[in-house]
Design goal:
heterodimer; A: 209 residues; mainly alpha; 10 helices; B: 60 residues; 80% helix; elongated
């Protein structure tokens, strides 16, 4: 049976209903704020304190890390809880496609994460009087980053378990290494310089005493 | 960063997200705006497709 325009509208309505359900039930869970907001903030403080790093370097890193952690936190919390309470079975058996289910879960996480990142951005601008060079690029960049990481969280949440504690370590196994290879807190130019210290070619060029 | 580190970082969506966000503040980008956006769209598409397959196989 071909996929019609009416099916598309039905799926989009279903996806939006799932996003609203996540918004209503899971946005105020304490563990979501713990790993989605507080964790990136303290990670930034750990990197920033005592290093005299410029704010204009730290705030983009903070927003990027917040988008990663807040966006990929909602689904790995909400879906195992729904499996435990058996409401996920209702979603699976609802008259919507699986792709609408994945999209709906992703939209739910995206809205949460985008609003958290915009709050972080506003706080960064107000407290540090940062200048934004390109507002459209920044807002679009934050948006697309949040949506990408939300989809990543949705993928991890597919792991069939009723226990949140089984999904989170699996996800952190991927998320935490990403922080150190992505040039988040140290921009690429300085990364190259720091990494250069470990290259044998640098030391071979030093004059012998 | 050593060449192998840079090669690994090319597979991280956070690299492109951070590069794109940094452009908004400093007008400086490592990969270029278009590459950043295209790669993030590619990652989103791949995650959607993998999510679809996993939910279909593991949860039905």
């Amino acid at each position: 049976m071909p996929y019609t325009y009416r099916d598309l509208i039905n799926d989009l309505k279903g996806a939006w209903a799932i996003a609203r359900k996540d918004f209503a039930i899971y946005y105020l869970k304490p563990n979501i704020y713990m790993s989605g907001v507080l964790f990136p903030l303290f990670l930034l403080l750990a990197f920033a304190i005592g290093r005299n790093a410029p704010v204009v370097t730290l705030i983009p890193g903070l927003i990027a890390v917040t988008s990663l952690f807040s966006a990929s936190t909602i689904e790995p919390v909400s879906i195992p809880i729904e499996r435990r309470t058996k409401t996920f079975d209702r979603l699976i058996s609802a008259p919507i496609s699986i792709s609408a289910l994945v999209l709906g879960e992703s939209i739910g996480g995206f809205l949460f994460s985008y609003s958290i990142c915009l709050l972080m951005l506003a706080a960064g601008i107000i407290l540090n009087r940062l200048d934004i060079i390109s507002v459209p690029v920044l807002t679009f960049g934050i948006g697309i980053s949040c949506f990408t990481f939300t989809n990543m969280g949705t993928v991890f949440a597919a792991y069939p378990t009723e226990n949140v504690g089984e999904v989170m370590p699996l996800q952190n196994l991927v998320r935490l290494p990403l922080l150190f290879i992505s040039g988040v807190f140290i921009p690429w130019k300085r990364c190259q310089r720091v990494g250069g210290q470990f290259q044998p070619s640098l030391h071979s060029r030093m004059p012998a005493i | 960063m050593p060449a192998c580190g840079r090669a690994i970082s090319a597979f991280s969506p956070l690299t492109y997200a951070c590069d794109l966000i940094r452009y908004g503040f400093e007008h400086v980008t490592y990969y270029g705006l278009v590459i950043d956006v295209l790669v993030l769209i590619l990652f989103t598409t791949v995650f959607q497709a993998v999510g679809y397959l996993l939910y279909k196989r593991l949860n039905e």
